[in-house]
Each structure stands twice: as C-alpha cells, then as structure tokens.
Amino acid sequence: MKWRDLLHNRRAVAGALLLAFFAIVAVFAPMIVPYSPTDINFTPLLTPSASHLLGTTANGQDILSQLIWGARASLFVGLVCATLISLVQLVLGVFAGYVGGLFDTVATAVTNVFLVLPSLPLLIILAAYLRGGSLFVLIGVITVTGWAWGAKVLRAQAIALRERPFVQAARATGESRVHIVMSHIVPNMLGIIVSNFFGAALFAILAEAGLEFIGLGNINDITWGTMLYWGQEGDAVLLGAWVWLLVPGLCLALLGTALGLLNFAVDEIANPRLRRF
Amino acid sequence: MERPAATVGRSPAVGTEIGERRSVRYLIRRFVALLVTLWVALTVNFALPRLMPGTPVETMFARYQGKVSPTAIHAMQLAFGLNTKTGELGQYFTYLGHVVSGNLGVSFSYFPASVSSLIGSALPWTLGLVGFATVLAFLLGTTLGMVAAWRRGTAGWRQASIVDSALVPFGLMLGALPSFWIALILLYFIAFKFGWFPIGGGLSPGHGLAGWSGFVDLIHHAALPAITLTFISMGLWILLMRNNMLTVLGEDYVKFARAKGLRDRVVAYHYAARNAILPVFAQLALALGIVVGGQVFIEIVFSYPGIGYLLLQAVENEDYPLMQGIFLIFTVALLLASFLADVLYVFLDPRIRMESHT
Amino acid sequence: MRKDRKTRWFGAVTAAAGLSLGLVFLPSAAADATSHVTTGGTFIVAQPWGTLADNFNPYAPSGAAAPGTRSCLYQSLYYFNAATGKQTPLLGTGYAWSDKNLKLTVTTRSGVTWSDGKPFTAADVAFTFNYLKSNPSIDLNGIWTSPLTSVTATGPNTVVFNFSKPDTPALISILYGTDGTPTAILPEHIWSSISNPATYTNTNPVATGPFTLSSFSASSVIYVKNPNYWEAGRPYINSVVFNSVDSNTTGELELENGTIDMSYDYLTDATKTFVDKSSSTNAIFWPISNMNYLYMNTAKAPFSNTKFRLAVAHTMNTSFLAKRAYFGALPPAIGGAESAVVQPQLNGWFAKTLAGLEWKYSVTKAKSLLRAAGYKWSSSNKLESPAGRVYPSFTVLIGGPGWTDYISLADNVSAELKAIGITSTVIQEPYSTYANDLNKGHFDFAISWGNGNSSTPYYQYYYMFARQETAPIGKNAATNWERFTSPVIQSALTSYASSSSTKVQKADMAAIEKVVLLNAPVVPLTGRANWLDYQTRTFTGFPSASNPYNDGSASDQEGSMLTYVNVYLK
After folding, report:
1. Which of A81, A192, A228, C406 is most deeply packed, by most CB within 10 A?
2. CB proximity C558 to A under 8 Å
3. A121: closest CA of chain C, how far (Å)
4. What is the rounded distance in angstroms from the CA atom of residue C168 to the CA atom of residue C178?
5. DSSP B14
C-alpha cells in the first residue's frame, strides 16, 4: 500500500524521474560524453558552438563533457554518504532509542554534541586539515557532520514505537533486541528512514559541492563543485563566461530538488496529516 | 544547505516532564550539556592542528611563490615563536585557560594581530547580515507557508490547490539550491552585467562609516548578499510553517472554530497560525544551521568582510589559530542560540508534552 | 701596514666601479629630466590584501605590514632590478671591497633627513645591521649567517663591514637581499629602545622615503608627499592611496574603468582580456625575473641517471608549455636559459662558448638517449628499467590553491612525458605540505620557481646545487630540493665567493653552466615574471619594456617606490 501511494504522489514521481535521469547520465557517462572531460587540448574559453555545445573552460576542456562526467561524482557521494549516515543513524538513533540505558545515554550525549557543533564551519575546518584528499576524504567529513539531526528524529520515533503492544509482545517472546529492531521497529518507521536517506543525500551533495567550490576538495577531480571552483579561478565573471558558471550549479539545483521532492513526498505519505489524496 | 525538515509533524522532543518545577531542572540539564559540548569543541580545536604537517613559515614560503627568501625562514620561525619546549598536556591547559580569559591567540597570516581582534572586527558584518536576513526570511517564509497551508486545507480534500502545489516545490527548490551558486549568478547578472550593485565588499575602500553617505554605501554593499541569504533561507520556513499549519488545521479546535462560523481570517491567524508557530521555535537551531551555512558561502562569493569570509582566508592561508578562533565563535553562537530556543520553548508552552528520558 | 700593489689596485678598481655604478643609475635618470612636468595628483592602487593591519614595521613577516611600508616609507641601501640586473642607489651611493675582500666599505647618501627632522647618518646604517645581529628574528636576509664579524660607522657617510673570510656575494644581502625584502634602514633614535622588533607595530613610522603616512583604515592607507625628500623635485605626485579590494576580479574591473591606476595580477590571456580593451591606455609590464623549473628527485632512481634526466629534458616542448600556461605572455626557457641562468642575466653571464650545448625538443633524441642507457619499453609502450621492470606512475608535485599556470604546466608536462613511456599524475598540495614535501624530498617530479635570483647566477646556483643546502630524503633541504651536487659546481661556488674579480666569477659561472647543460639536474621550463598592470589615462611615466626602471614590482614592494617617484599627471 505504501508503494502505490508513492506512485500516485506527483511529487514523488517527479523527483524519481529527475533522479533517474541523472542516474542514467552518470552510469552511461563514458558513452555519452562528446570528448574526454580531462582533455586539455581545445582552445580555451570558447563560447557555445556546434562542436562545443557549452563552450570550453580556461584550461581548454569541454564544458559539456565535464558536466556529464560530474554527475557521477555527485551521485556517488550522495549515495555513499546517505548510506553511511543512515547506518550511523540506525545505530545511534533507532537502536539507541529502543535499547535505552547506558548505550542510549552515551549515544544521546554524542548526538547532542554533534547537533550543536556548527556543521558548515566544522566541515570546512575538517576538510582544510585533511586537504588535498580525494572524494573519500570528503565523504568521511560529510558523514561525520551530517548524521546528528536525523539521528535525533529517528530516536524519538523509535521510542514511540517501543511502547506499542506488538513490540511489547515480541519482547515477551524473548526475541533478541537486534532482531526486534530490524523486524518490528524499522519496518514501521520505514517512511521516515527513507525520507531521512534522501535528506542526507541532499545534504551530502550540496556539502561536497560547497567544499569543492572553495577549493577544499581535490581540484583535479571532475565534479560540478570543482567546475564552479575553476570558473571562479578562471575569472569567468570577468570574461563573461556565464555558461561555465550557470550549468554546474543548475545541475546541482535540479538534482537537489529531485532529492528534496522525494524526501518530502515520502514523508508526506508516512505522515497521514500531510497526505493529500 | 541542510535539508528542509519535512519531519516537523514528529518534532524530535527533548526530555522532560509536564510541570513548571521540572522545566527548571530541564533547563539546568540543557545548560550542563552546553558546557560539555563547549569543552568537546575546545578539545577538538586543540588537537586538530597538532595533527597537521607543515608550519606557518613553510606556508608563507610557498604562498609567496619565490618572493620570500629562504634566508628568511629561520628568522620567521623565531618571530612566530614556533620553537617552544612545553609538553602537550601543559599546552592543553594553557590553551583552555587562555580561551576562558578571552585570549584566542595570535594570527599567523595577520601577525601580530590577535585572533580576537580580527574576529571582533568581522563579527558585526555577519551579525547584521544574518540578523536582517533571518528576520525577513522568517516573516516572508512563514507567511507564505501559512497561505499555502490555508489554501490547501480549505480548498477541500478533492481540489488541488495551485498555490500549495506551487509553493511546496518552490520551497524545496530553495532548500536545494547551492547558496554559492545563486550568489555567483546574482553577482554576475545583477552586479557585473547590470551594475546595479557593487561587485563585492562591505564598503567602498577609502570610505568610512561616517555620515549619511557612509550609511548608504553600507546598505548598497549589503543589499545583494542580504537578498541572496533571505532567498535561500526562506525555503525552510515556508515548508515548516505549511506542515505545521496543516497539522494544526486537522485539530479539533480548529474544526470547531470553523463550525462556529468564525471568519476564515480569524481562524487562520488567531487559532491555527499561533499554535503552528510554536514547534517552529524548536526548529530554530536547524534554521540557524542553514542560515549560518548559507551565510558563509554568500560572504565568500560577495567578499563580504564577515566571519565566513575571514574563515575562508584563514583556511587558504593555513592560519590555524584564526581558524580555531572562528570555529569556537560559531560553536558558542549556535550553542547559545539553541539554548535560548530551548528556554523560549519551555516558557512559551509548558503544556507541551515532552518525554522523560535521562 | 703596507698592502701589496695588487690589492691596492684591486681595491681602487672596485671602488671606482662601485661609485660610477652609483652615479649612472640615479633614480631620476629614468624619467624626463626637464621641468615640463605637471606636479600633483593622487595615485591609486588596489590589491586584495584582506583587512589591512595598523602595522608599519618593515620587518614584520611577509604581508603583515600595511602596504606602502616598503614602497613609500622605508628604504634600503640599493634597489636591485631583477629584470635588468641593474642596481639603483637609494641610501647607499657607493661601495668597495678592500683588504683581500675582507672589508666592505659602503658610502651612504648625504643630505638625507628622517621624516621627523633628525639627520640621517652612517650611524643609522651601522645601527640597523647590528640590530639584526641582536635580533635574529628580523634578519630576513640571513646577513649574520655569513662570515660578517662587525659593522661600524667610520664617518658621517661611511660604514665598514668586516669579514673573517671572503664572501663577496654577501654584498648582495647587505645592499638589497635576494628574492625577499631588502634590508630597510631604521632610525637609531627610535628603534634602539624597541626590544621586540618582530611584534612591534610601529604605528607612527619615521623613515626616509618619498612619502609619509597620512591616514589609515582597515580598507585603505593614504600617504602624502614628503616635502623633505632627498631627491629634489620628487615625487611629482601629491599622494598615493592603497585600497584593499575584495578580490582580484574587482581590482581588474576598477583598473579597466579607470578607478585605479595600477594593480598586480596575472590575467588570463591578458592581451585579449585587458590590453586590447583600450590599447592606448591599458598596459601590462611583465618582465622576466625568475623561471619555472621541472625538478627531478635525483636522490633516487631513475632520476639519478644522467641520461634519463637528459631524455626528460629533450621531451619538454617548452614553447607549447609556455603558450598554454601563459597564453604567449611569457617565453619558454630557450637560448641558453636551459643552463638555469635567468633570461635577464643571459647577456652578461651565459658563456658564449657553451652555445649549442643546449637541448632541443626532440622525442627521437630522448628515446635514443634512453636506449643508450639501457632503458626499454614494454609492449604497451611503458618505460622499463634496464632490469626489465615497468616504472610505476610518477607524481608531478605542484602547490596551490589556484595556481592556474602551474596546473597547466603540470598537466601538459604529464602529457608530454607519455611520449617516452612515463605515466604520471599531477598532485596539487596546499602551501605548507607542498613546501614541506619539496624540502624533505617527497616527490618524483615537481614544478617550482628558482630561489635567490639576483644580479648574477651565483645565489641561484648556490641555493640549487650547494652541498651545504642539500640533505638526504626525509631531512630538510631548504633549497637544494632536487639534491644534486657536483665537485665542479662546489669548487666553482667557493672560488666565486672568494673573489671580487668579474673575470674569475664569470669563469666560475661558466663552469657551472656547462655542468647543468650536460647533466640536466633541473629542466627550466618557462620564464617567470612579475604581473604589473596599469592604465595611463591620468598618469604617465610608468615602467615599461622600453623604460624598465623597475622589474614590475607590486605596489607594496620596494621597486614601486621608483614608480611613485617617476609618475606624473598627463
């Protein structure tokens, strides 16, 4: 019944289609790129033309090829970070909420600390200290700063579910705590977990792009964030190369919107008050 | 930059019990948590730079690309006082002591200016921008959210509401937009191409803040960053308020009010909105996180001389004392704001049921 | 004590040389000496300096003092023009070695007053140098690391420097320093009571320069003409304003629309994006004063093999590299510059007998060199050691962030190395890691500048090849990053430092040049310049290729003092 609701929800469908579009571009990137994204042999700073639909960068690379290739990094980071963050939230949120006791106390304390540390400055500073690292460094840093809020939400929900009769019954039959969490608690909060997943992906993608924009990623990677970084460095504003600045950000915004729509739609379905049908 | 909290319906409650006495205990607990967090932040601050290779002198040598003579390296190391002998633990307690007395150290890139003086001169710019944009975004956003919800709620279950259908994706998109990208686009088209606003900075160089012309200059420079910041932080308020309103509109007392025949506007503002806004305060910390995040990037793109821009310069110059000082300020600010939000929440509605959990 | 005739003759010749050099290159010789010059005007410069500090200490660590401290207020003994190799006398007017090169006598300028009215004498000069000895944290040119033993003022206009051993290149550090900041002369009556000069902010500066401080704010510093400046009639302009703008982009835009007169910035494709926009008034002056080198870590294989290094040198298409990195604004390292002698010095210091020994771009020649040394290629055309092992991917190290020219150089070098079967990846590191890795020898290939450029190739060769400057991999080698030494080079350096005869010194340099050309310890790639940009709508008299009275220094470097003293209203 949940999936059918999803299909009928216009926002979910829109978001899913948009996400699918980017996913396809990312997966088939090596086949659809007109040129190699790292090829620096073209004349720099060309305006859009037939042979270079979006023009070239100040280093002589084809912008369209970079744009297509950049989808891979964003989706990869989004997927991996969202997965890692969700796992952390599962342990420190759901499991901690259900289990209670010392584990929960410690987990809550840790969550509260991370909740209040300002995430963006922390992100910037961690990335600065670990500078020059690859996408994996960014993934690590983003995961560390992005899990706290969702963990708190999940924990509250797990606590509410814990008191439900069917959970009490399962406990009475002596099932292991992990088993109870995985087969009773989680399936009943799937909506919010999925919604959190998409939210985390959105956070991750924007955070990655933001860090790369200020030069804290590996500037040799081909991603939308580094494209914007190079646009700044290459004096794009001064040279009137607005296409170079516009397209990577537009892709980020569209992918972000897709994830936001999915996040919102799933939540809408899970929360009856917000539903429309 | 963080996701819009669509999970408003299940406001993540913090623990306490009903009753006035208990709320004092709750506040004390929150304050203790604040202190603990502060201590953790300080310790992290202390440890991180000690894990990094390289020294500020080497940074300078590379940064100036051949304009710093190798002979100057030894002299500069002496000037920076980098050859200390005290042990790590001693340094840690000295550091803690210094911070408590307000001594955040000396900057490397602005040597010998103190970190606190640099932060002190940048902070007012950020506060002005953030304050203005937050208030405006809050007002605009909650109003739009309220309108969206009302239209949706009263249009009947079967009817699609155009306003709501439009505003929700709009709010989502605002939250999904990379703040630095919007800033870049606005900078390019409005400031560069059309020339309506300056290309960046806080004031025109050479001008002071004195007098009317100084004030106008200030506003002229602050306009574009403020508009951008308002724009991107609006999305959260729209969605929050809308969702809260919908939840409240489903409540019995609202239905009762409408059944009594009260005018729509009265029901909307006096009953629904007032109650919908309460949980919004709980989201204040989240909202601040978004504003702070957006503000840093906007300051960077517009080269607005606030804390965010200072942080970028510190990062680029590998000026660790300055980076640490700024991080500390951010942490303290957010801690205070979230604590304040907790206090407000408790006093505004002590009837709200919160769980008890230790 | 009787000196032998030869020494006295030597002394006389050097003294005459020093004095005549001083007379010929008076600062004002560069501009129009007639009186058809309109005085007045406010000259405006801008850079993204960030928040300006209320600090006018000429010895504050780089970038800490407010702009104008070095270019409007304080002066050294001489100004050295790295683009032409000429020196301009400022507070020093002559110098001479004597006593078997153990004694350096410097004549100081007379008729100079400090901006607070007190007279400037040789005692201030002696004080300054002795002050550096007691405060090593400000001895930025490492003057006291030389065999200098004492500095005394022997008259109102003479200072004597005594050495325990001959070290004639020390003259350069004393008069004007290498790369870094020249030794600014301080007033004894103010600084003798300052005990911590590195942190002293000197908010009421007293100096001898053509301007005095008028006002300071966090975004702008203003200087006004010093009515008691020692060069009569100068400066022509009334004041210099330094504005801190928020980014290079803003600075360029302000330059283009005439809001400011001068800035310092590398512009992508400068001719198209700047000069052509208003060719009668927009100009750039980017004179070569250094070079970009491809360093190889000669302490490990295969970089320790001479033929391998020569093969790499033959694989570098420096014309293409220069064109890509600088859009044609800077030249490749050719015509003798392969010997690591910087272009401006080639004329005087590159031995003509060595012409023809330079390598030329030829992949065929590179391959035959490798073959002769026993290297082979695998079936997928990857380079193999003589023992048959395929070489792994090497790293090409550069620094950052944002050094777009180095990114271009590194990317293209990496692409060109493929022609001889070498695979490589470009690694860009943040400043301190980059410097640290160069020092410790944690790199395979690296791209960086040269250190110690001065009036002769000596200091650069010293920093690049001296045994004292090298260290095993893992230990700190401050400047001999590629860790190459040779007995020929070492003895040539020693011989040069003990002599003040130009003939001997030129022969020493020629010996080193030959070693470089035959061994390719480093591969010079392109020239390196200063990036002076300006527009002539309001003022004229700027330095240019036809009138290079400074080396395109930035507005806050000492070379710009000559600009401020020479420009005048149109």
Report:
1. A228
2. no
3. 19
4. 14
5. -
DSSP-assigned letter for residue C246 = S
Q: How many CB pairs under 8 A join A and C?
A: 51
Cβ(C168)–Cβ(C497) below 8 Å: yes
Q: Are strands C532-535 and C87-89 parallel, antiparallel or unpaired?
A: unpaired
Instruction: Scan for tokens 């401290």, then name that residue.
Output: C69
As given in the structure block, the two tokens for residue C334 are: 């050719």
User: Inter-chain contact A253–B286, Cβ cutoff 8 Å?
Assistant: no
User: How does pLDDT run along chain C (570 residues), one tens digit per residue?
Assistant: 333 444 444 444 444 444 444 433 444 444 445 567 899 999 999 998 877 888 999 998 777 889 999 999 999 999 999 888 888 999 999 999 999 999 999 999 999 999 999 999 999 999 999 999 999 989 888 899 889 999 999 999 999 999 999 998 888 889 988 776 789 999 999 999 999 898 898 999 999 999 999 999 878 899 999 999 999 899 999 999 999 887 787 788 889 888 899 999 888 778 888 898 889 999 999 999 899 999 999 999 899 999 999 999 999 999 999 998 888 889 999 989 999 999 888 888 999 999 889 999 999 999 999 999 999 999 888 999 888 899 999 999 998 777 878 988 999 999 999 999 999 988 888 788 888 899 999 999 999 999 888 888 999 999 999 999 999 998 989 899 999 999 999 999 999 999 889 999 999 999 999 999 999 999 999 999 999 999 999 999 999 999 999 999 999 999 999 999 999 998
Per-residue HEC secondary structure of chain A comes to CHHHHHHHCHHHHHHHHHHHHHHHHHHCHHHHCCCCCCCCCCCCCCCCCCCCCCCECCCCCEHHHHHHHHHHHHHHHHHHHHHHHHHHHHHHHHHHHHHCHHHHHHHHHHHHHHHHCCHHHHHHHHHHHCCCCCHHHHHHHHHHHHCHHHHHHHHHHHHHHHCCHHHHHHHHCCCCHHHHHHHHHHHHCHHHHHHHHHHHHHHHHHHHHHHHHCCCCCCCCCCHHHHHHHHHHCCHHHHCCHHHHHHHHHHHHHHHHHHHHHHHHHHHHHCHHHCCC
The shortest C-alpha distance from C193 to chain B (Å) reads 18
C328 lies within 8 A of chain A by CB: no
Using a CB-CB cut-off of 8 Å, the residues of chain B touching C434 are 62
The three-state secondary structure class of C38 is strand
Tell me which DSSP letter residue C59 carries. Answer: T
A106 close to A190: Cβ distance less than 8 angstroms:
no
Q: Which C residues in the span 111-130 are in contact with A, Cβ-Cβ below 8 Å?
A: none
H/E element holding C377? Answer: strand C376-377
Nearest CA in chain A to C412: A40
Report angle CA C96, C100, C104 to the nearest 5 degrees.
30
Neighbouring chains to B with at least 3 Cβ pairs closer than 8 Å: A, C
User: ipTM of this model?
Assistant: 0.77
Comparing CB atoms, the residue among B54, B72, B74 nearest residue C432 is: B54
User: What pairing do the DSSP bridges indicate for beta strands C148-155 and C103-108?
Assistant: unpaired
Which residues of chain B does A263 touch, with a Cβ-Cβ cutoff of 8 Å?
3-4, 6
Among partner residues A14, A129, A156, which is closest to B10 by beta-carbon distance? A156
Structure tokens at C193: 């009571």
Residue labelled with tokens 């009571």: C193
Contact call for A156 and B297, based on CB within 8 A? no
**CA of A178 to nearest chain B CA: how many angstroms apart?**
21
Q: Tally Cβ neighbours within 10 Å of residue A221.
A: 16
Chain B residues within 8 A of A17 when measuring between CB atoms: none
Collect all residues of chain C within an 8 Å Cβ-Cβ radius of residue A237: 249
Q: Do B206 and C50 touch (CB under 8 A)?
A: no
Are the C-beta atoms of residues C56 and C63 closer than 8 Å to each other?
A: no
CB contact at 8 A, C454 and C80: yes
Task: Work out whether strand C539-540 and strand C568-569 pair parallel, antiparallel, or are unpaired.
Answer: antiparallel
